[in-house]
Amino acid sequence: MKKTSILGLGAMGARMAARLLQHGYPVVVYNRTPERTAPLREQGADVAATPREAAERADVVISMVRDDAAAQDVWLAEGTGAVHGLRPGAVAIEPSTVTPAWARRLAAAVAARGASFLDAPVVGTRPHAESGQLIYLAGGEGAVLDQVRPMLDVLGGAVHPVGPVGAGAVMKLAVNALFAVQAVALAELLAMLTASGLEPAAAVGVLNALPTSSPAAARVATRIVERAYAPNFPIHLVAKDLGYASSVAREAGVGATVVEAALSAFEEAQRRGYGGDDIVGIARCYPIGAAHGAG
Q1: Residue 53 CB neighbour total at 10 angstroms
Q2: Quick one: which of 114, 212, 233, 291 is 20 to 30 A from 103 by CA?
Q3: Residues 222, 227, 233, 239, CA torsion sign
Q4: What are the pLDDT digits (tens) for 189-245?
Q5: Where are the beta strands (DSSP E) in 8-128?
Q6: The domain that contains 215 carries what CATH number?
C-alpha cells in the first residue's frame, strides 16, 4: 500500500484520512491548526509539521482545502509547500474544488519535481467521505490514475476519467453549479406554491413523485421542508464554487446568466448570516410556509 499524506483536515480531509487508516494504509497528516491532527494520531496516523515534511514522507500526496488560495499556500509556499518535498515518481492529487487554471499551474510545478499529478475533485459530502462513496472526476493521464486507483477505490464509489488536467476542475464546478441552481429554484418555487395556499410537505411530495425532479432536487426539497440546515455543503462554499464557475464561463466566452443569478441568491444568504448552513438553507431567504424560519 502506498504511503499517503493528507494535507488539510477539515470536514472532508479528516474523513478521507480516517478511511485510509481503517483500510490499513500508512497515512501522514498535516493541518494548519495542529490540534485537529490529534484524533488521527490516535488512530495511527503520523503527523507532519509542514506540508513539505508530509510530502517528503509519502508516495501519494493529497490536499483537501477550501479554495485556490488555500491550495496555493499548502502546495507552493516558499520553504514549506508540499511541492518542494515531492519525491521523484510520487503522485500529487488535488481533490479540492478549485479552478482549472490553478490545477494546470499546480500540475506544472509538480512535473518540475519529477512527480505526477491528477486533478481529481470529488463529488459528495461528509457522509459520502465517511462511507467511501465519494465520486472522483479525474483529469490527467490514465497511467497516473492507474497507479492510485486502488486507493481511490477505498475512498470512493466511482472514478470518472474526464480528460486532461483541468478537466476535472471544470466538471466539478459544473456539477456544483447544477446542484446550486436546482436548490435556489426549488426555494423560489416552494415559496410560490405555499404563498398560493399549498401545504409545503404535500407540494414536495407531488414534485418528488414526478419525472421532472432529479434525485438531487428531491433530496433538497425534502430537506427544505424538514429545515435540515446542518451543513454538509455549506452555503459559503456554494457561493465560492458558483463564483469560480461564473469566472470560468466568462473566460470561455460563454454566458452564465443562470449561474450568476444563483450566485446572487447565495451571496444574499451569506449577507443574512446563513453562510454556515447547508445548501438547503437558501430556503431561509424565502417565505416557504412551515419551512421558513430560524430552524
Answers
A1: 18
A2: 233
A3: positive
A4: 999 999 999 999 999 999 999 999 999 999 999 999 999 999 999 999 999 999 999
A5: 27-30, 46-47, 60-63, 91-94, 116-119, 122-123
A6: 1.10.1040.10
| Same domain membership, residue 120 and residue 40 | yes
For cell 427544505, name the residue.
224
Which residue(s) pair with 47 in the sheet?
29
Q: How many CA atoms lie within 13 A of 288 on its CB side?
A: 32
CA 259, CA 172: separation in Å to the nearest integer? 14
**102 sits in which H/E element:** helix 100-112
> CA 213, 217, 221: angle at the middle one, nearest 5?
105
Give the count of alpha carbons within 13 A of 3, CB side only: 15
Record the cell numbers describing residue 200, joined without a space: 409545503
Rounded Cα distance between 221 and 47, Å, is: 41
**Residues 139 and 44 grouped into a single domain:** yes
CB 269 within 8 A of CB 235: yes
Planar angle of CA 180, 248, 107, nearest 5 degrees: 110
What range defines the domain where residue 240 resides? 170-291
Angle at the Cα of 281 from the Cα atoms of 277 and 285, rounded to 5 degrees: 125
1: Cα within 13 Å, side-chain hemisphere: 15
pLDDT in tens, 165-175: 999 999 999 99
- Residues contacting residue 287 through CB under 8 Å, at least 6 positions apart: 191, 194, 195
Whether the CB-CB separation of 145 and 220 falls below 8 Å is answered with no
Dmax (CA) of the chain: 65
Pairing of strands 122-123, 134-139: antiparallel
Share of the chain above pLDDT 90, in %: 96
| Distance of alpha carbon 102 from alpha carbon 169, whole angstroms | 9
Q: 237 with 158, same domain?
A: no
